[in-house]
């Protein structure tokens, strides 16, 4: 597994890097069969250290965790515990499904836009009714089953996930509803 360990305005020593590789490697190897890469970022917020970890799995799914503590090692250990919990749940869900994924998730390119909020617009912009695009970036749209899409949305702590349904080959959306349940949008192809 490839590791990218960095600090935002913090020097990361060799001892911490070895600790991260050993501990995170053990956690990920226990629950994920073929992890591809891990990104660990340390930063400081006031008097506390923050550790953010992103692990990319060969199945195309991504697990994220964040830990906060007054000491940098404790922040990482807190983050590693959360990562272990997520990966344990992920593995349990995979065992619950009858079909194991043998091929990696197919990923398609797409565009992602960030639009200006209405508060930032003045009256001249209101007349045009065209939202101002603040940022335009590329994003990846995975080809997943509905269950895997829900799992990926929960692992990423995202409110919504757009994916290509493996069965119908159509674009679908899963989202977190206000009542705590998960909604699924499956538009039917008009003929």
From TrEMBL:
It is found in: Cytoplasm. Keywords: Coiled coil, Cytoplasm, Translation regulation. Residues 130-183 form the Sigma 54 modulation/S30EA ribosomal protein C-terminal domain. Pfam families: Ribosom_S30AE_C, Ribosomal_S30AE. It comes from the Bacteria. CDD domains: RaiA. The keyword Cytoplasm applies. Residues 73-100 form a coiled coil. Required for dimerization of active 70S ribosomes into 100S ribosomes in stationary phase; 100S ribosomes are translationally inactive and sometimes present during exponential growth. Belongs to the HPF/YfiA ribosome-associated protein family. Long HPF subfamily. Associates exclusively with 100S ribosomes, which are dimers of 70S ribosomes. This is Ribosome hibernation promoting factor. It comes from Aliiroseovarius zhejiangensis.
């Amino acid at each position: 597994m490839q590791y990218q360990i960095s600090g935002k305005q913090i020097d990361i020593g060799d001892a911490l890097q070895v600790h991260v590789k050993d501990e995170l490697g053990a956690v990920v190897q226990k629950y994920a069969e073929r992890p591809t890469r891990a990104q660990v970022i340390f930063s400081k917020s006031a008097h506390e250290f923050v550790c953010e970890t992103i692990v990319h799995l060969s199945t195309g799914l991504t697990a994220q965790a964040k830990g906060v503590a007054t000491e940098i090692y404790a922040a990482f250990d807190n983050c590693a515990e959360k990562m272990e919990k997520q990966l344990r749940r992920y593995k349990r869900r995979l065992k619950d499904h009858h079909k194991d994924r043998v091929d990696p998730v197919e990923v398609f390119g797409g565009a992602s836009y960030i639009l200006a909020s209405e508060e930032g617009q003045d009256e001249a912009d209101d007349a045009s009714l065209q939202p101002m695009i603040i940022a335009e970036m590329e994003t990846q749209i995975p080809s997943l089953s509905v269950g895997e899409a829900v799992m990926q949305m929960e692992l990423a702590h995202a409110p919504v996930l757009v994916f290509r349904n493996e069965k119908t080959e159509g674009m679908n959306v899963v989202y977190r509803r206000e009542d705590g349940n998960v909604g699924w949008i499956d538009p039917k192809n008009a003929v």
